[in-house]
Amino acid sequence: MEKTALNPLAVDQTNKSVPSGVWLVALGAAFWGIGPLFRVLTLEYLTATQIVFIEHLLLLVYAVPVLWVHRKELAGISLKHIAALLFISWGGSVVATIMFTQAFAVGNPNAVLLLQKLQPLFAIILARILLKESLPRHFSLLLLLAIVGTYLLTFGLSLPVGLNDVIGISSLLSVGAALLWGGSTVMGRMLLGQMKYETVTALRFVLALPLLMALTWVEAPSWTVPMSAWGTVSLNIVLQAFILGLLSLLLYYRGLSSTKASYATLAELSFPMVGMLANWLVLHQAITIPQLFGFALIWIALYYVSKQS
Predict the structure, then answer these.
(1) Which residues are CB-contacts of 242 (< 8 A; sequence separation ≥ 6)?
(2) Could you report the per-residue pLDDT of 113-123, keeping only the tens digit for each?
């Protein structure tokens, strides 16, 4: 594999894999959209924290050998990169997920979803400040196109019900999750200038474990799963760990290694698109014309972003 540049702030503009990098990010994020299909049954017996904790334990099978093989990359790691690793593993993987889930539990779902659409804005602003990324002409138009498409995908032509709930604890939680996820994209891009994408993926899994272990201990949940459901629950967790966890992040970070963070955050909108398709194909939820239009707008934005190099 070609060695990545040591400058974490640079993206090789002559790299012919830039367009494919955007699509790899989109493909990795697309796997996240099918996550609820795996979790529906599992959540009947285990909490979200338990599930994520078990997944990370399973993924040590990948992470430990990779970190041993790439151990030389860890020798010169700086405090800045350690902070970035903790940000994506603790903030992006664990805390943001908990905040977003709790926002749904205590607030209006429409307001939560609306505010979560701020994620691309956070990522672009942070990429501009931290990575000094320059934006091409017409990028603001593509961003607007993607945001409008995502809004139509979520709400159609209707105004979100319960906009009076925009100010409140659930909204603060939703905005916090959007900031952490947007920031994780930028921190991931910074790290990929210093180490290989396989190493970043492995470190994300390993560093999240202590926090997950502490949260599981504080939560003190029941570990009782009926024997009749043991096989299905085990299979779902394994699939979640190695498809939604390992495969998706390997694709995501491989694409991010040759893609600007500001471009990648738009590619991540494949997540809600696949979620909509999964609801339609598996849960048989009807898709409206405005949603299809929003779907098309996002794909148009992704296509033109992938053409930028």
Answers:
(1) 58, 59
(2) 666 777 888 88
